[in-house]
């Protein structure tokens, strides 16, 4: 009898081992993990399976799919470097997939790894999408004619693409002005400027940009590693290129654009604008565009007003009925008239300055980090200010309570 029990136990152990070694078992377990959203653990399970069964194509494709799904989640969360690495891993498993080459290239572009992105996108075929992103790389790195050529080729393949038509229209508006510009460079900035501008002004602008890089970078905890394009225009050219509102003193749309016509040197006001626009560069890198306008502009105003504070009446409790709704301030300001735009900037500065003074720059950096992970503003504030048990409504309530009574305001509040 003991021999029969020992034999039965041995058979059961063998069956368990055989079952664990079955590719279908690994695949089923990985599917359960994927269904729960646990892609990382599913990848570990499938990597173990493919090392055991290196010739099982189903397991290999399942692993590639899981890497790809994890990469897509990384893209949505703004984790571009991780997304690029996971798309690379997926492509190594399915080397013939043009779609994976394309997605790898897009992730590299979003991470501003332009050389690697161009190399991948050139292998992604002649579809319109690779051409669009190759054009974006050319545009971002200052090759406007090259960008136009690529986008026009893409338009031939996808004539109904309205976004592409907008890119072409914008580039065609900029080309006549930029084609006659001179160039200047510093450690992190590529400067293009109208040849008619006074000699020496471009060098002073570069010095101010380098100063902004260090000062604003310290406040926001971000120091870009990709070169930043900056363009200096006459006022007439600035209006024709940007089509911005009359009250605009500068613009950041992936490139810093500044109207400097009539200036012979960098004034305190221009230096403030340079710091303001450079702040937008960092906020864009940190949040990937997921930021309400009031917070973006408020931070930029804080940095600019350190250098040049306009003589403006402070907000007070008596102005409460004139305050703009937060929903309006979360959208762009460019469609506003001058008076409303002044109120939008002043209120944005007041709210954001209060947050910095009350909770500190580290809390602001945390808010920006959570926005970069695709949290909405309320959730980003709640996470960053968890120690204060505050959400966005609570912060706005504290800000309103901080406003001085009429006649008691101090400049810069």
UniProtKB/TrEMBL annotation:
Residues 1-20 form the signal peptide. Residues 241-403 form the Peptidase MA-like domain. Keywords: Signal, TPR repeat. The keyword Signal applies. TPR repeats lie at residues 64-97, 128-161. The keyword Phosphoprotein does not apply. InterPro entries: Peptidase_MA-like_dom, TPR_rpt. Pfam families: Peptidase_MA_2, TPR_18. This is Peptidase MA-like domain-containing protein.
């Amino acid at each position: 009898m003991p021999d029969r029990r020992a034999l039965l136990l041995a058979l059961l152990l063998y069956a368990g081992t055989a079952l664990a070694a079955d590719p279908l078992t690994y695949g089923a377990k990985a599917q359960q993990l994927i269904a729960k959203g646990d892609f990382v653990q599913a990848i570990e399970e499938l990597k173990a399976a493919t090392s055991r069964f290196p010739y099982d194509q189903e397991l290999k494709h399942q692993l590639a799919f899981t890497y790809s799904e994890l990469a897509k989640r990384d893209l949505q969360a703004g984790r571009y470097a991780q997304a690029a690495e996971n798309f690379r891993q997926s492509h190594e498993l399915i080397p013939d997939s043009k779609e994976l080459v394309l997605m790898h290239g897009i992730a590299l572009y979003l991470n501003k790894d332009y050389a690697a992105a161009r190399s991948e996108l050139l292998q992604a075929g002649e579809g319109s999408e690779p051409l669009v992103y190759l054009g974006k790389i050319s545009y971002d790195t200052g090759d406007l004619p090259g960008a136009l050529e690529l986008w026009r080729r893409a338009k031939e393949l996808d004539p109904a693409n309205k976004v592409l038509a907008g890119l072409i229209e914008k580039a065609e508006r900029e080309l006549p002005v930029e084609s006659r510009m001179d160039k200047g460079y510093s450690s992190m900035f590529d400067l293009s400027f109208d040849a008619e501008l006074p000699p020496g002004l471009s060098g002073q602008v570069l010095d101010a940009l380098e100063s902004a890089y260090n000062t604003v970078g310290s406040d926001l905890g971000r120091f870009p590693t990709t070169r930043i394009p900056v363009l200096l225009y006459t006022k007439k050219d600035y209006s024709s290129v940007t089509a911005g509102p009359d009250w605009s003193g500068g613009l950041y749309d992936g490139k810093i654009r500044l109207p400097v016509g009539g200036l012979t040197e960098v004034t305190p006001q221009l230096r403030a604008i340079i710091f303001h626009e450079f702040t937008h560069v960092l906020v864009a890198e940190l949040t990937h565009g997921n930021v309400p306008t009031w917070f973006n502009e408020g931070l930029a105003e804080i940095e600019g007003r350190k250098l040049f504070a306009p003589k403006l009446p402070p907000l007070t409790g008596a102005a409460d009925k004139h305050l703009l709704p937060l929903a309006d301030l979360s959208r762009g300001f460019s469609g506003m008239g001058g008076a409303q735009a002044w109120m939008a900037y002043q209120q944005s500065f007041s709210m954001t300055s209060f947050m910095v003074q009350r909770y500190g720059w580290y809390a602001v950096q945390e808010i920006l980090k959570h926005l970069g992970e695709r949290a909405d503003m309320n959730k980003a504030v709640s996470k960053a200010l968890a120690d204060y048990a505050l959400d966005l409504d609570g912060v706005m309530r504290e800000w309103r309570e901080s406003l001085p009574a009429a006649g008691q305001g101090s400049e810069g509040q």
